[in-house]
Structure formats: C-alpha cells, structure tokens
Amino acid sequence: MFTTFFGLLRPSISMQLIDSNTGQPLDSKASIAPSITHTDIKKDGNGKMVMVRHKSQAGSIVSGGGDRDAAPKGNKNNNGKQNAKNNDTKAAETDGDGGKPWTAKDDARLKALKAENKTWAQIAEILGRSGKEEVSARFKELNKDEPAGDGGDKKGNAAPAAAEASGGGDFTADVDAKIKEMIDSSTPNKAIAEALGRNLDKALKAHIAQLRNEVKDASGGNTAPAAAEKKQDNTNKGSNGNDFTAADDAKIKELLDAGNNNFKEIAKALGKTMGKDFADHVKELKNQGGGGQDAAAAEKDNEGGKKANKKDKGGGRGGGDAEKKPDQPEKETGKSKEHKHPSKAGSAVSRRSTRSHRSEAKFTMREWMTLQEDEIFSFGELQLLTELINKEPGRSWLSVASAFHDKTGRRVHPEDIREKFDEMARMG
Questions:
Q1: In angstroms, rounded to a whole number, what is the distance separating the alpha carbons of residues 356 and 370?
Q2: Which residues form the Myb-like domain (predicted)?
Q3: By the 8 A CB rule, do 192 and 182 touch?
Q4: Are residues 361 and 387 in contact, defined by beta-carbon separation less than 8 angstroms?
C-alpha cells in the first residue's frame, strides 16, 4: 500500500507482533495479557554475545503474578527433559531392557552363567539383555543381598570387582590353579591371557602378579627350583626340535658300536634333523662310551677329513715327495736330492779342480787319469763339463747341465753331474 506525501509516493509501514516463544505472528485481534518486557544476554548461533528481549506472560515470576504452578527453572514445563530422563532411568532400573523385568529365574540363570566363567557380553546375549552393563549391574545388586566372606563384604567382593574390570568374570579356584601352573613353567602374561581367553588388561595383570607372589612365597622366595625343573625337562630337547628318548640314545649307541660314525646317517636312521644340537648330543654319548674305540675316528670323519685332504695336497713339508718316492724313477730321486743339497758347481765337487785350475782349463796328468769315462759320460763330455765349471765356478749344477745341453743337445740330470765330480774330488 502506498500513500501520497507532498506529491510523492512512499510505501506504508505495517508492524506485527511476534510471539517470542513460538516465533509466529500474533493475531491483531487476539487479546494480549499484560506483560513486562525484559532482556537477556546470551550467545547466538555463531557464538557472539547478543541482547534478546523477552515478553513475560502474565503470572510469571517477572510479572509478579506468583503462579505457584509454574515450571521450575531449568524445565520448560512439568514434563520437561530432566523429569523425562529421571523417569526413563527409573524405568530401566526397574524393568530392565525394554521394560523386561528381572525374574527369580533370570537371577538364578545369571548366577549360574557367572559361575561358568562366562563373560558379561556372553551372559547378556544368552539372557537377551541390552548389554554387559545391564547384567553386571544386576549381578552387583544381587551380591549386595548375599553375606560377605570371611574377610568382610569388601574382601568378599574383591574378586568380582576385578573380574568385572577385566571383562571376563571372576577368577575361580580352577582358573587360579591353571594360572599358577603356567607361572611355574615361566609362561609370560600375554600367553597366560591367551590361554584363558581374556584380555590382558590392568586387572588381569594385577591378579597374575598376585599369584606370582604367592608362588614365590610357596617356594621360599626362590623360583630357581621351577626353572631347574623346566630345564631338566628340556635337557634332551634341541633347538631344531629334536627330543631324545632313552630308546633314541640306545639306537645311537648301537649305530656307533656298529661302526656308523656319520652323523647325518645316524640322524636319518632316527628320523631326526641334523643340526648342532644333534651333533652335540651324539658327541656326548660318545664321551659316555658310545662307539667304543671308533669315537676318535668318527670325530675325525665328521670334521670333513681336513687333515687328510691337506696331506693329499702335500700340505706337509716333503709330504708330496714321500708319496712319489716308490714310483718315481732315479731322476726324480735326484731332484729331491737337489733340494736337499743346494750346493753350487764350484763348491765341494770342484774344490780340487777349481782350486788348481782357476787360471787354466785343463787338469794335470793325475787328474786326467781320474776322469774316467763311464756308462753316463764319455771322456770328451767330462772334459767339456770341466771346462764349463772352471769357466764359472759359482754357477749351480742346474746351470751346468743347461749349458751342457746347449753344447751337446743331450739332457743330463744335474745330480748325475754332481755325483761324478764328487767322486773325482774324493779320488783326488
């Protein structure tokens, strides 16, 4: 709607009243009770502080009407959220899940399932309840009415409290006995929890620690006997999973006595795994008398025959020559003599000849007479050898033989030359 003001058109402004509680516009014809406007400071949806004005209804605390039936602060009305929550909680405590009450039969079944070491989750599923919180709360309520143990209510309910914390039920005498048995065998806490089908939580750890102390006190504060017993049980068990019975030891000794000193064959005969533990066990039986006089031989065989291989390869000094002596010809024997007598051509053999003929190439008449030819050397060859030796007195017999071959084309062993000239020196 537009109105004319000094010849100009301008829109007319209309105002409506809005209900602060509902946010809906109020009917202009509706009667409005007397009210007093007041303001509150609060945060809006964006977290900013804003001032909000409210219209107090008649009969409210602000209007001074003093309505005694008005809802208390914090409730929108007598059936507000707080009362609804309290009513729902009370109904849940009374009737259980979905209004299902706890009967005497349910209570008896709950106790029976608990005695069977069922978990709260399992019990809740069997009884058709909402969850473990409901059944655990009911179990606590039932235990309040029962007499406490010898140590009082606090002591008597200690185990159920620990069981509830662990989520796996209380610890019965059978469970404790099983835990102590695993403690004696040095079983770690994680393996104990897995064997019990429980979670290794704080409560279970505390209970295992308590039982460990009991086991320690029962053994006089020393857990060595249990460890020694376990070690004794595993004495004949190797790292490769080999465990040796009395029958196995008898079989091993029988094989050793029969001359079978191969550890691999013995392991195969027993169906065992050949490893360090098996070899150590067989050696131990040998030291006890198994295998008789063949024990040392077996030890040598299992070392791989290293010493024998070294001997075959000529590892020792003169070892190769010792094997060759019976089958080698005379010249080979001469070679070994060459190594044993590393003398030079101008040494003992030519002491007389070189001493008397350093300045001349020929012997005296007496020396020529001693240079008699034989089946190896002729007279001319002996004369040539003499000239070669006198030419270089310090040369070796091998060098003389090489020079002789260069002159004559005939190969002569250096030891044959040495022996011939040694004979000449002795005769001179």
A1: 15
A2: 98-145, 240-288, 373-427
A3: yes
A4: yes
User: What per-residue string of b and e applies to 135-157 under the rule 16 or more CB within 10 Å gives b?
Assistant: bbebbeeebeeeeeeeeeeeeeb
Kindly tell me the burial class for residue 384, based on how many C-beta atoms sit within 10 Å of its own C-beta (0-12, 13-18, 19 or more): middle
Please indicate, yes or no, whether the overall pTM of this predicted structure exceeds 0.85.
no
Q: Which two tokens stand for residue 188?
A: 């770690």
Phi-psi region for residue 245, left (φ > 0), alpha (ψ -120 to 50) or beta? Answer: beta
What would the mean pLDDT of 131-150 be, rounded to a whole number? 75
Instruction: Look at residue 345 and tell me whether its pLDDT is greater than 70.
Output: no
- Six-digit token pair at 373? 């030819």
Q: Which two tokens stand for residue 55?
A: 């219209």
pLDDT at 367: 60
Phi, psi of 256 (to 5 degrees): -65, -40
Predicted confidence (pLDDT) per residue in 324-334, tens digit: 444 444 444 44
CA atoms within 13 A on the CB side of 312: 5
Distance (Å, whole) CA 411 – CA 409: 7
Cα distance between residue 143 and residue 160, in whole Å: 9
Give the pLDDT confidence score for residue 56 in this predicted structure.
Answer: 56
* Residue 405: predicted pLDDT: 92
CA distance 362 to 353: 9
* DSSP states of 226-278: HHHHHHHHTTTB-TTS-B--HHHHHHHHHHHHTT---HHHHHHHHT---SHHH
Strand partners, 40: 52
